[in-house]
């Protein structure tokens, strides 16, 4: 016999499930958008940190240090509530994606920098001696190998972004966590909706981890 409190939790979780499932694509969309916009920015930052130009190294280093050294929640508040003080107003959608993108790019840039450095220097020198330009060497020789090395960390970052999207609920974005809160405000039963939201986060993260493992296996095959 299932205790009555557990039955109540199960009922509230089940009743909240349709609403939460409808919000799950929004959560996934925020994570994918931050990853999509964050990767090019991260590559630029990584190249700036590897540049011989000291100002580029300094500016990119400060950016990475600041974004990694401050809470994402504070960054969201600064962009959404702070930018209007400078005459720049952003919607919750733009503010959320922008904060997630800037934060993710800082972490991704360090992954990319380490991956680029992992490519043997001799390969770059050989490519240059064969007549390739530095840009061609980077695009054709270095980045394909660096991408293979970086894949596990990139996958982990995406999974982390899925969970970090819960923070954009503070600027009224109705994603997965915010949807659970709205259900709770209506039913006054917190545990079930939060449990259902946690299970959906878990399911999305597990699916992304499975895709990541499949890609790693495919890329590890010779030829």
TrEMBL record:
**Principal localization?**
membrane
| Transmembrane residue ranges | 20-46, 86-108, 191-211
List the InterPro entries. AA_ABC_transptr_permease_3TM (IPR010065), ArtM/GltK/GlnP/TcyL/YhdX-like (IPR043429), MetI-like (IPR000515), MetI-like_sf (IPR035906)
From which domain of life does this come? Bacteria
Give the GO cellular component terms, alphabetically.
Answer: ATP-binding cassette (ABC) transporter complex
Keywords on record: Amino-acid transport, Cell membrane, Membrane, Transmembrane, Transmembrane helix, Transport
The answer to whether keyword Transmembrane applies is yes
Q: How does it sit in the membrane?
A: Multi-pass membrane protein
GO BP terms = amino acid transport
Q: Where in the cell is it found?
A: Cell membrane
Which Gene Ontology molecular function entries are recorded, alphabetically? transmembrane transporter activity
ABC transmembrane type-1 domain residues are 24-212
- Family affiliation: Belongs to the binding-protein-dependent transport system permease family.
UniProt-recorded name of the protein: Cystine transport system permease protein
